[in-house]
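Suppose a colleague, Dr. K., hands you the sequence of a protein chain of 599 amino acids and asks what its three-dimensional shape might be. Before reaching for any lab equipment, you can write down a predicted structure in token form. Begin with the sequence itself:
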Amino acid sequence: MSNIKQITERIIERSRESRQQYLAMIAEMRDSPPAPDRLSCSNWAHVVAAESDKDKKSMPAGKGANIGIVTAYNDMLSAHQPFANYPNIIKLTARSLGATAQVAGGVPAMCDGVTQGQPGMELSLFSRDVIAMATAVSLSHDVYDAVMCLGVCDKIAPGMVIGSLQFGHLPVIFIPAGPMPSGIPNKEKAAARQKFATGEIDKATLLETESASYHSAGTCTFYGTANTNQALLEALGLQLANTSFVNPGTLLRTELTKESVNRVLKQSSKSIDYTPMAEVVTEKSIVNAMIMMMATGGSTNLTLHLIAMAAAAGIKITWEDMDEISRQTPLLAKVYPNGQADVNHFEQAGGLAFIISQLRSKGLLNEDVKNVMGEGLDAYTRKPQLDSERNLIWGEPITRTTNSDILATADSPFAVEGGMRSVTGNLGTGVVKISAVDRKYQIIEAPCVTFETQQALKDAFEAGKLDKDHIAVVRFQGPAANGMPELHKLTPYLGILQDRGFKVALVTDGRMSGASGKVLTAMHVSPEAKQGGLLAKVVDGDLMRINCDTGELSLLVDEQILEQRKAAETPYVSDSLGRRLFKNMRASVGVSTEGASSI
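The predicted structure, expressed as tokens, is then:
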């Protein structure tokens, strides 16, 4: 039995009781009478009040499946702006197939790019749980035979997965919007940010550069959390094969949306190929998603989200599972911040189809899975295309890359191990994204410099106090303290110090963006400072060690000295900008190692 199979079997055994409880809930919903038998005439009158005369008769009679659309459309997220037209496409396609579709509800969708380094970021992680609940509210009318989710970005797609899993007796399919066309190279954007941090360019010049990077509808083109979400949705089997990185506004993109309607209808309970979400999201597909994350060097945010998503299906996974899978999985992709290519270049080089082909060639995936394409993984080695008559087809398997600087074979990978490492010690347990960190920076032992805010680190940098070897400790950034914001604002300052030749690293109980890159960062440290974590007792000058080879995260201070120290006090958290409404979430949120969930 391969190591991947052993890990999968271990997760199955660990999850046996909770998975059975979940499936029992699903069976109860699946076995309940159909909506036309359950709902009263008054109920149905409300359901169809705004529908056509034809639908007012057919829907209550149960003629044809009814699709519930949950949408995260808004104009703030470039990745979600294309969703404005999707519901009409879905409705017209459904009608042409003898079915109906209704927008069941909308979910909030904040842009981390807008809130990065701002107070609004303190609502970011908790928005995932709000989205999960909003998805459940949307579907609570219980009149749908299938679900289509329109969501892409950081917390939105995970939240929609969590919410949809509560209706796992229904087939569920996600439809992406695709990435914006390539703008300026990501390396140029990062360089401009560092120049701004050192005062070499002004704000107007930086804005011009940023706007040349984030310039149109579609997902951001680096391999951050949004695009990692897309890769994992495919690995989970919830999205049509190799549709993640088809650009918005293309004919192919529109045809894929139509085909998504066709597929989800074929898998509804009114079809012979009934395939509920609970049979798609299983222990085996969750392991496949973890493998995909490691093989592509995906965002560390998914180390939180995937645990929470799995838990919603009664499946228990851990950072230790992820670490072990990472050590068994070759790194096959170099996409920014793990390289200089963007996701458009990645797609052109072979994309996820090539990755799946390579992983399958080494027996590194669970093959006996169901998905929206049917059964097995063969379809996920093929790319969609339009034939000469503009019919949608999936071509031949992608077994070769057109650019070996972006994609590597499993026989000659960029690294023999995957993109993530779990580190643990007396400070607790954290996560490191090693795929973006040069090998020579993956081990450090240096004195600490402690901060309670991002601004304090910025001030110290500008005052020249960080021009030395050190490990920056930014604490009280965990979910219970202030909602666990991303700390990507720190990246330019620490990157500059590393470029100056200093050995630097970051240790935090907060998160880093999916764009976190070249500076060694042990993040999500649990237990967090607010909840008794040793981070609260670190003082300037303490020696700390991070060793990604051995998986160590240790404060090298005598235990008796630490026992005598008083923990630092939690900084004040403002109630402004909506943060007061999230007090209860901060008070009840679970630990990071369990997905930092408040529901």
